[in-house]
Amino acid sequence: xxxxxxxxxxxxGTSPTPPVVLAIAATDSGGGAGLAAxxxxxxxxxxxxxxxxxxxxxxxxxxxxxxxxxxxxxxAAQLEAVLGDLPPLVVKTGMLGTADTVRLVAxxxxxxxxxxxxxxxxxxxxxxxxxxxxxxxxxxLLPVATVITxxxxxxxxxxxxxxxxxxxxxxxxxxxxxxxxxxxxxxxxSTALGVGTNSAAEFAEIGxxxxxxxxxxxxxxxxxxxxxxxxxxxxVADERPENRGATRNDHGTGCTFAxxxxxxxxxxxxxxxxxxxxxxxxxTQLQRxxxxxxxxxxxxxxxxxxxxxxAPEEIYA
Length: 317
Ligand SMILES: Nc1ncnc2c1ncn2[C@@H]1O[C@H](COP(=O)(O)OP(=O)(O)OP(=O)(O)O)[C@@H](O)[C@H]1O
Ligand SMILES: Cc1ncc(CO)c(N)n1
Hints:
By secondary structure, the chain is an alpha/beta fold. It has helices spanning 10-13, 34-44, 72-85, 99-109, 131-141, 152-158, 169-177, 189-192, 200-205, 253-266, 271-288, 312-315, and strands at residues 20-28, 48-60, 63-69, 90-93, 114-116, 147-148, 182-185, 215-221, 227-232. It has one domain (20-191, 213-289): UDP-N-acetylmuramoyl-L-alanine:D-glutamate ligase (3-Layer(aba) Sandwich), CATH 3.40.1190. The protein is built from twelve helices and nine strands. The protein has a nine-stranded mixed beta sheet with strand order 3-2-1-4-5-6-7-8-9, sandwiched between helices. The radius of gyration is 20 Å and the shape is globular. Adenosine-5'-triphosphate binds at residues 33, 123, 151, 186-189, 216, 218, 233-234, 236, 250, 252-255, 257, 279, 282-283, 286. 4-amino-5-hydroxymethyl-2-methylpyrimidine binds at residues 25-26, 28, 33-34, 57, 59, 94-95, 119, 122-123, 252, 254-255.
């Protein structure tokens, strides 16, 4: 017997119209990052997500195997379709793939609150942007972005610094903010270890030390002195013996974080609140997937909201 979706009376079974956030990003066939992460996060946080696909990636928990950019004319057609009919309160960008697409997004999304996650490299290490793309980010997208959410290595690339440049994280955030947008420079556990980003003085300032991995620090820069936003680390497995039992499922944290920022902004939160809420959401979802066994590499952060699934009688009648 087939189950029928319940049709309850409008007063009982309806909810208010949700805000719309447009996610402009690429697909991840493994379902951990990119548009899969964006739409799941927006849905979990009470937002209707519309989407523009910029590239298709063949990707799994072990790495990126192929990137197929969508032609700029097809990206433009998707943008025209959704910007007119379903105007977004906030736009969030992830992997854009080509310089043409970066410029197109900058042109078409000017005047809409814009959260830019400058995806230049996958968690698994694959390069997802070349010099032309970087140039387009610097000169076209950053000046019209409301907030950008790079990690430290993306921040260095956007500033034209060497990968090994020792500039501390808050200075990187401040330098990017000087180009126009507010900045949340994200820092996973490697930042807490002081790898290339935080100086000992900064760790003293935020009440931790260079050996501590208990807290992650994101740096919020809005023009003045950058502010440290700290939250508890979900320990990630690495070569250290004490971390052997920790999670290996952290694929998609950056996309999830930026989408959560966009969702909270769309609900009217201010940027510091949105950034704190987004970090709390990432931490919760990392914790939830910490014992999952998906794939052989770095598995996904949790994108399920009701898991295990509710009993059928709670959904169907
Ligand atoms: N292990 C962790 N425990 C708690 N929070 C984490 C952890 N790893 C990342 N985060 C948080 O997740 C958010 C996204 O930061 P992250 O640095 O992972 O982005 P990213 O490097 O751009 O990710 P990705 O490579 O998936 O795009 C930040 O708020 C960061 O502090
Ligand atoms: C499609 C896509 N977007 C973003 C990332 C960054 O994690 C990724 N690995 N893949």
